[in-house]
Amino acid sequence: MVLCKGSAKKRVKLLVAAMAFGSLGACKSLPDSGPTASHILKVYKNPKKNLVGFGMVDLSPDLLTLMAMERPAPFAALQGSRYQSGNDAIGPGDTLQISIYEMGNGLFGGGGTNASGRAEASGMLGGAANSSSSLGILSSASPPAEHTGSTATLTNLPPMVVSHQGTITLPYVGTFKVAGRMPEQVASQIQSALSRKSQAPQVLVRLVDGVSNSAIVYGEVKRPGRVALTPNHESLLDVVALAQGTLYPSEDLMLRLTRGRHIIQVPMSLIEHYPSQNIQIRPGDRLEVYYQPRTFTVFGAAGKVSEVPFKVPQLSLTEAIARVGGPNNSWANPRAVYLLRFEDNHLVRRLGLRASDTAPVTPILYRINMMNPGSYFLGQKFAMKNKDMLYFSNAPADEFYKLFGLISTIIQPGITAGMMAR
Asked: Domain named Polysaccharide export protein N-terminal: which ranges (predicted)?
């Protein structure tokens, strides 16, 4: 019996030792919430493992200074070409109102008049004016005999819509092109054509419905549709205001401007903060206002993976960390908290890092040491952006505690069996 007991004890000890050594080989497969700070650093320094080419920067006063100097210019591609139009050039689809003044018995006045009305304007020569109307375009009563030769007759032609070819047709003038010209230029052209057929004609041309001088606004605005542009040169925010404003706060809205082949989308709040980006709207532009609530995501040793909305116009890094409860006291490494973000390449180069060769942005890891009191002040000045990612790395000792717990779980039955074998 003694020999049997001794043999049993030896077998138990060998079994426990084998299980313990076997568990050491499994330490790399222990459950984990993400890479440790040392593993991130190894990947960062190894080009073969850093396949996305991310950079790493410590949170510092110099970093905040560089960021404060940045002035985003998303509309740089649209500002390359000069635009001098006053938004009053005539184009296809526009509606013109043409008024013709003639002395005496003219083409449109003396022996005939207009469809919308005729006015005898002796006031042009110092006399009194009166008006009348008729149904025919070339049939009306002549001016009174006593005023013949001293009275100007006004004829308002029916509104004319510019054809898709950019032309209109007038009696005694024919068909001619008006697209791309100013109303004054068209008036001068008509007047020149009538001067050989009418007595001292004077012509006025008004653009009463400028379809070609308009932009389309749609999306999360109160009144989507066509917005007429004027010589006042309306800007992005002007057009949004003319659409009676937005349905959501500007912090959670994006503007997508389509101009020709260019499509630019930016947060509406950026336009408000940088007036230089509040560019002029041009005829034919299409502006979409769409709702995109700002959020940031949390990974690693922070309790649970979550997506957190901003809910405020501006959110700092310190406030974002506080919202998720900060690093977990049990297994997080407060010296290695990371903010992951895609940064514009011009900022990446100013940080002294290598920018992406294939994309306009580069992934950057901002490292925050929460054990340094200064980081809390710096984090208050570091603004969060939409789709930022916070990662809390595991503490180096966390793997040891997990391994120790695993070994204890494995060998505890062996210890119990040895105690029972005594």
From this structure: 87-207
